[in-house]
Design a protein that fits this description.
- With 197 residues, the protein is mainly alpha-helical.
- The protein is 45% helix and 7% strand.
- A three-stranded mixed sheet has the order 1-2-3, with helices on one face.
- The relative contact order is 0.11.
- Bound molecules: iron/sulfur cluster (2 copies).
- One iron/sulfur cluster (SF4) binds next to helix 5 and helix 7.
């Protein structure tokens, strides 16, 4: 099924719920934009088309678990890029800006280590100084220091979560801190029926 968005990219976003419904009938979608046809997101495209093609990938993935895997990965990539490109946490010598602004005795590397006990989260890999799991709730988390500067991420700030998760699934995405991807996806699957509008 071809969707012509040449005149207005926003038309696509207005039609997402309808496209989601049609996708249950095994239809595959192709985008037509400025006389070109696009059907996958594997090549580099202009930014907005790239986002639309990722949504198309989700719509064209019919197996439920695979679909949630793609939604999850695109949401994580989006949040990673937001934090990296905006340099929100501004690490210097393995310490984030929020901790650099605390009294010395409370300073740790990041929010993956407790300020009082200095204990790292069990999933923090100290050799690469990064999280070893892909936890969407942790990726959505913003500390007080950043949130006072107006930096906030909600489930609905991430387009892939906004359009493809039910309310229950969104709640799971927001509160499942310190949980690996497969645990969160299995919870989403449990509440799959609630995501059909
Ligand atoms: S979210 Fe805040 S506490 Fe966590 S790493 Fe970023 S600046 Fe540091
Ligand atoms: S699970 Fe969360 S707190 Fe633990 S290392 Fe990963 S991002 Fe940090």
């Amino acid at each position: 099924m071809k969707i012509d968005i040449t005149s207005d990219l926003n038309i696509f976003y207005k039609k997402i719920r309808l496209l989601k419904f049609i996708s249950h009938f095994k239809r595959n979608f192709i985008i037509k934009y400025k006389s070109k046809e696009y059907k996958d997101s594997f090549k580099r495209h202009p930014d907005k088309i790239d986002e639309i093609l990722k949504i198309l990938d989700i719509l064209n993935t019919k197996k439920r678990k695979e679909r949630y895997n793609i939604i999850y990965d695109y949401a994580c990539d989006y949040l990673d890029n937001e934090f990296i490109n905006n340099n929100w946490c501004n690490f210097k010598n393995n310490m984030c800006i929020s901790n650099r602004n605390k009294p010395k005795k409370y300073q740790v590397g990041s929010c993956c280590t407790r300020n009082y006990t200095k204990m790292d989260c069990e999933y923090f890999d100290n050799t690469i100084k990064r999280c070893s799991i892909k936890c969407i709730s942790c990726k959505l988390f913003v500390c007080n220091y950043l949130s006072k500067k107006g930096i906030k991420y909600r489930v609905n700030s991430v387009i892939y979560l906004k359009y493809f998760l039910s309310l229950r699934q969104k709640l799971i995405a927001s509160v499942s801190f310190f949980k690996p991807k497969d645990v969160i996806i299995n919870k989403w699957l449990k509440f799959y029926k609630l995501s059909i509008k």
